[in-house]
Write a structure and sequence with these properties.
Elements: E1 2-7, H1 14-25, E2 28-31, H2 32-42, H3 45-56, H4 62-78, E3 83-87, H5 93-105, E4 112-117, H6 120-128, E5 130-133, E6 139-141, E7 161-162, H7 169-183, H8 185-192, E8 196-200, H9 205-220
Parallel strand pairs: 1-3, 1-4, 2-3, 4-8
Antiparallel strand pairs: 5-6, 5-7
The chain binds BIS(adenosine)-5'-pentaphosphate.
Length: 223
């Protein structure tokens, strides 16, 4: 089993790169952002509780995300999957401690934490141009990876590509501030544990995919 965390600021490409890697290696993609957006879409009480926090770019409480992750892990573990990619989780030191203890309880461990490094101005351009398929969640970018037919998903053919409510410049700047204050300390935390891998993720997608696979090659051979 191989368990990875993708760490990096909003727009670093965590979703894009983990989507491709999970598809190729049959790993489970566990994105807390996607789990929370699914609650918003269902209109659940939890969804209503977190809606305004997410829209403004703040962090949802550690307890809420840890519970969602535990539930998803418990479901997937029954299916004997080859491993997990945690995307956007952990985001605080407390979440990192919770992830460590949850994995230990399940007899699992974290193999590597991939830090995706990208300059701030590139992040803003990536996020404000992002569009997502309403049906299958495929990620596009209006300039860098547009759909083949305007407004239509290449993967499932659905004709609604939407812009996330938190992908406006004001929310993006707030998310970057929150990342620097709450999540960046995880770099030193995981460096001290000897599991941190740094990737320059400012390149084009194909180069990033190549660099990612090269950095992860010692772990991928185990699959
Ligand atoms: P979440 O959904 O996790 O958002 P995020 O961390 O802000 O990250 P993004 O999804 O915005 O970026 P990404 O790195 O995945 O980039 P992507 O690959 O899409 O969280 C949203 C909110 O939920 C949070 O703000 C918080 O409120 C809450 N939340 C979630 N998890 C939480 C937690 N653990 N604790 C507390 N609260 C939590 O790429 C971005 C764009 O760039 C795309 O358009 C893509 O096509 C394009 N792109 C990607 N790579 C390239 C490239 N190489 N070249 C050009 N364009 C590229």
């Amino acid at each position: 089993m191989v368990n990875l965390v993708f760490l990096g600021p909003p727009g670093a490409g965590k979703g894009t790169l983990s989507e491709g890697l999970c598809f190729q290696e049959k790993l489970v993609h566990l994105s807390t952002g996607d789990l929370l957006r699914a609650e918003l879409k269902k209109g659940s009480p939890l969804g209503s509780q977190v809606q305004s926090i997410m829209q403004s770019g703040g962090l949802v409480s550690d307890e809420i995300v840890a519970t969602l992750v535990e539930q998803r892990l418990a479901e997937a573990v029954k299916e004997a999957v080859p491993g997990f990619v945690f995307d956007g989780f952990p985001r605080t030191i407390r979440q990192a401690d919770l992830l460590g203890s949850t994995l230990a309880k399940l007899g699992m461990k974290l193999d590597a934490v991939v830090l995706l490094e990208v300059h701030e101005e590139v992040l803003i351009l990536r996020l404000t141009g992002r569009r997502i398929c309403r049906k299958c969640n495929k990620i596009f970018h209006l300039a860098y990876s547009p759909p083949k037919v305007d407004g239509v998903c290449d993967t499932c053919g659905h004709d609604e590509l939407y812009q996330r409510a938190d992908d406006n410049e004001e929310s993006v700047r707030e998310r970057l501030k929150v990342y620097a204050a709450e999540t960046k300390p995880l770099v030193a935390y995981y460096e001290a544990k000897g599991v941190l891998l740094r990737i320059d993720a400012s390149r084009d997608k194909a180069t990033n995919v190549r660099n990612l696979r090269e950095a992860l090659s010692p772990f991928l051979v185990k699959l």
